[in-house]
Amino acid sequence: MRSVNLLSYSYLPFTHYFISLQRNQLLDFIIHIVSFLALSQEFLQLGAAQICPSTSPYSADDLADQILEVLNFFGLGAVMCMGVTAGAYILTLFAIKYRERVLGLILVSPLCRAPSWTEWFYNKVMSNLLYFYGMCGLLKEILLQRYFSKEVRGNAEIPESDIVQACRRLLDERYGSNVMRFLQAINRRPDLTSELKRLRCRTLIFVGDSSPFHSEALYMTSKLDRRFSALVEVQACGSMVTEEQPHAMLIPMEYFFMRYGLYRPCHLSDSPRSPLSPSCISPELLSPESMGLKLKPIKTRVSLEV
Asked: How far apart are the C-alpha atoms of 195 and 92, rounded to whole Å?
């Protein structure tokens, strides 16, 4: 049985569903998780020290180069990379700069262009809130609206979901100054559009149709080489597909990893039913070439009625 090193890089510290995949043996292969770069960077991890105010500002290139330092520290060669939103951008930049170190990319609600005026403005507002008030309630609400759909954020009649409540608690445990440094770096990110055609690693993109980055994911997919990329859209879901509908990712990821020899023959009926069960998964995704040499963009929408 083969294994692969998986590097996870996300803006919010949620990557537990991969452990769930192993526990339930849904894919019947071993994923060796070597590092969780929770909240995207070592200075954003739980327990990380506060950055010295005199430290020079970080750039997107600096964040990508730090990934190389992590891989070299652990003595790793090529890895499978997974990133969410801004983390997906950094991993894409890393794959462009260091092609030989990336086996494949799994991107969730990715970014690839420079910030729009709207995003730039909100990032500025959040940076100012962090500077003057720290991780305040208003800042948390902005972040929650950016990453979760209204279905899980709740309202006057429906309480917040457990995952949103957990997010609130985790945000309280981060240094506001560290998060501010990261936001400032992402707000100065360059456009990667002209470089996307150079990517030769296989790329699987997930995005929720309620995500504010939905159009960005569609744009990125249109610029990638169609032989090596695929798109999965998930209905009634925000940016954090990994948290709102993780089961919608199982079958696409299973077929994605099959190309790397990370599977053993099994019957589909042996797996627990998921939102992407054979009854509602796109036939294109199940075709032999969908995750093989002629990988092509697909558009798979998850049915709410399972």
From this structure: 10
Closest CA to 87 of 160, 161, 165, 14: 14
The three-class DSSP label of residue 301 is: coil
Domain spans in the chain, listed from the N-terminal domain onward: 3-113+191-286, 118-185
> What distances in angstroms separate CA 275 from CA 249, 288, 300, one per listed residue?
9, 21, 11
> Length of the chain in residues, anyone?
306
Concatenated DSSP letters for 248-281?
GGHHHHHHHHHTTT------GGGSPP-TT-TTTS
CA distances from 120 to 79, 117, 124, 167, 220 (A): 31, 5, 6, 23, 19
Give per-residue pLDDT as tens, 137-183: 999 999 999 989 998 998 888 889 998 898 888 888 877 888 888 89
pLDDT in tens, 230-271: 999 999 999 999 889 888 888 898 888 888 877 655 554 444
Contact 224, 188 (CB under 8 A): no
Sign of the C-alpha dihedral computed for residues 128, 130, 135 and 136 taken in this order = negative
Measured distance CA(152)–CA(165) in Å, rounded: 10
Buried b (16+ CB within 10 A) or exposed e, 234-249: beebbbbbbbbbbbbb
CB 233 within 8 A of CB 299: yes
Place of tokens 């559009």: 193
- Asked whether 98 and 68 are in contact (CB, 8 A), the reply is yes
Q: Which fold has domain 3-113+191-286?
A: Rossmann fold (3.40.50)
Calculate the average pLDDT of the chain: 76
